[in-house]
Amino acid sequence: MQLDFENQFLDGLSSIEAKKRLQKFGYNEIVVNKKKSKFKIFLSQFNDFIVWVLIAATVISGIMGEKADAITIIAIILLDAILGFIQEYRTEKSLEALKKLSAPTAKVMRDGKISIVNAGEVVIGDLIEVEAGDRVPADAIIIKSEAIKCDESILTGESVSVEKKSYNGKTALKENYLYMGCTVTNGKALAKVIATGMNTEMGKIANMLQSIDEMRTPLQERLDNLGQYLVYVCLIVCGIVTVTGVLRGENIYDMFLIGVSLAVAAIPEGLPAIVTVSLALGVQRMVRKNALVKKLPAVETLGCTNVICSDKTGTLTQNRMTVKKVVLYNKEIDITGDGYEFKGDFFINGIKKNIDSIMDSNLHKLLDACILCNNSYYILDRKKINFYGDPTEIALLVLAEKAKLSREKYKNTYKRIKEIPFDSDRKMMSVVVSDGKNKIMYTKGAVESIIKACSYIEINNKVVPLDLNYKRRIIEQNENMAKNALRVIAFAYKNNESNFIEKDLVFLGLVGMMDPPRREVLYSVQECRAAGIKPVMITGDHKLTAEAIAKEIQIINSNELVLTGDELDNLSDEKLVQNIDKIAVFARVRPEHKYRIVKAYKSKGYIVAMTGDGVNDAPAVKEADIGIAMGIQGTDVTKEAAAMILMDDNFSTIVEAVREGRVIYDNIRKFIRYLLSCNIGEILTMFLATILKLPVPLIPIQILLVNLATDGLPAMALSLEGAENDVMFRKPRNRKESIFSEGLLFKILNRGALIGICTILSFVYTLVKYDSDIVLARTVALSTLIMSQLFHVFECRSERQSIFNLGIFTNVYLVWAVLTSFVMLIIVVYIPMFQTIFKTKSLNLWQWIIVFICSGLISIISSIINYKRG
Ligand code: ATP
């Protein structure tokens, strides 16, 4: 890119130019993906051949004189389209909920002076000024800087701050750029904006998060196939009804219109739409609960999950560490205090001590290491301290503050010369610092790793060789702390050497910190167990620490085991698979172990959810049936590989998502049951009339009314049904299970048949009783058909519980939907204007009793049949 170096320090942009650019390039904001326009969504509702046939037929009938009929049919089609539109529009809306990033302010050079503007108004070419504590408002290239460092964890997941340098006018390197959303941790800089809004690196990530993969789910695919099959069946039946009618001397045109209307009503064209809407609404509910589903099929798979493998730190625990104990060779110090508060007292053998009285060279060195071998930091912002970096390291800074040693003072005295960063394979990190005269290397890490790197130990300010006895003692001290759920970090150092490698170090001591479990996790673990899901902890932490926490949150019970990474290495894949059901905790594992663990569960046929944050976790996350990335701690790579992102890194959110997955599947079954049995009822009514040589029981406009009153609102309301009490008390569903399993097909068929038969019965009864008054008979049949569907929708609310257990009013949407449809029926039956259009007659009390007996009868017979089956 070309920068005009001559002008770079002058005025930045003029406010006029900035305004122009703002108009040209738009606001510096993270925006949601382009939406489908409302008009397009509406138009897509007519994307159906049969609807067009109906429209064409109606228009012809309108021209031929049946104007009122034609207008009503068109109105009904439009109303149907509006309902479809509402469903789809809500889906689009739900995606907007993903927008969560808010813009801070920015310091920009405008008209030659620094002014503070809304970060949204920053434009390309602006000169911005940032200093420690600021968030970078846009992607920019550094022109002038002083010791600038940035926390780019939001982009890279790496908590270590990166050093940045001014661009030298030649090749621009990564270290010359500042990225939007990152925080400046040190120094200051003047930089020129090169990208804003969605063109920034952050924008690209936001885009990725928003692009919910709209792959069709296996269930949707199966339903598509079923839908096609049903279309054929419906068309054949409609054909038979039409042809038979014509053969019996009915008007060809009337029969054709009946056939087409029946096809429109009976073909469950709304089914795929409702399934998609249910999935999308579910995704929206999950977002509200902090689970962002990236791949739609995951919603379905979630409901089948048998095993949830979760990281410990931050997911099961709070990741808010507090040092509770410092153990030197001959001294054990207990420390009080909560969270990251700088207040706390020191105790030895239960007696409170002044820190100065217990401070010796040994302890001092350990505290020096806490501060210097550390990449976290804090910034005082309006009397509040904001902490940045890895919580393990923050806890160490807080410990030093409690001992009156402040990081601020060390910053000026020591200069860091070298760092060997922490990685979860080595499980340690080192820094080399210089105070101008001497160089010292400080190392910290997991106890086993540190012991391996040490040859000496400092005791009473003397350095002596680290022999076996000493080592045993340290291991014992470590285990005692770990058993009490403390996470232990060991410290070591090395003096003045030319070659600073992690070898022959001097052992200093141990620090034990508490990372309390998240409060809600215990309940979620119990919920998992009740739901037949096995929760598994996977952690890099020590076996005993992991076990102690696992016991606290009941992830492990007395029959289950903890397996370490080393033990895992000695186990063949077959042996692992054989024993995997007994293991509840995997401790001291390396990221690559996770992949083997997922494989082992999968080979047993389990559906596995697996969390991950680091880059090395990506393969395991990808391999899992549900890969879950951490929203806060996770790296891009893991997020990309994942099917779901936990915005709050919380285990309980996974369980919530599983629960939601089950509810969605339940609801899909509910409205499939409803829609199909109703449609069978409609088709059968017409078909039975044909084979029984009866007059046509419903005219086209009435058929369409049934479709509108029942398939529309009530079906939609069913998709909003809340969770049933027992969703998390059932075993996970088998992924290969048919949507019609557990007798659903039988329920649909027998209910559909009963609706058809009862409607015909009411029709025949009225014909016989009222001297073949066809208008009245049709009104009774129409009312019976609609009422039986409105009764039936309540039965569809649960496959296991009766409506009286659930409470009639627990789904208010449904109550309103049913009332609306009922009022629609009353209007059509009683208001003269509609009577002429819909060819109906007012019903008297007795006729209503017939309607209710016939529609209610179905409910009773159906309950008896289902009761017997149950
Ligand atoms: P999880 O439970 O999510 O796997 P973890 O924190 O338990 O995370 P790692 O981060 O791999 O797992 O840490 C493993 C061990 O490495 C810890 O038990 C600790 O002894 C040590 N350790 C962790 N963080 C640091 C650090 N910043 N510097 C040095 N050692 C560390």
TrEMBL record:
UniProtKB keywords: ATP-binding, Magnesium, Membrane, Nucleotide-binding, Phosphoprotein, Translocase, Transmembrane, Transmembrane helix
Localization, UniProt: Endomembrane system
Cation-transporting P-type ATPase N-terminal domain span: 4-66
A Pfam family annotated for this UniProt entry: Cation_ATPase_N
Protein name: Ca2+-transporting ATPase
Family annotation (SMART domains): Cation_ATPase_N (SM00831)
GO molecular function, one term: ATP hydrolysis activity
Signal peptide: none
Keyword Cytoplasm: no
UniProt topology in membrane: Multi-pass membrane protein
GO cellular-component term (any): endomembrane system
Reactions performed catalytically: Ca(2+)(in) + ATP + H2O = Ca(2+)(out) + ADP + phosphate + H(+)
Family according to the record: Belongs to the cation transport ATPase (P-type) (TC 3.A.3) family. Type IIA subfamily.
Organism: Caloramator proteoclasticus DSM 10124
InterPro entries (UniProt xref): ATPase_P-typ_cation-transptr_C, ATPase_P-typ_cation-transptr_N, ATPase_P-typ_cyto_dom_N, ATPase_P-typ_P_site, ATPase_P-typ_TM_dom_sf, ATPase_P-typ_transduc_dom_A_sf, ATPase_P-type_domA, HAD-like_sf
Membrane-spanning segments: 46-64, 70-86, 229-249, 255-281, 671-692, 698-723, 744-768, 774-794, 806-833, 845-867
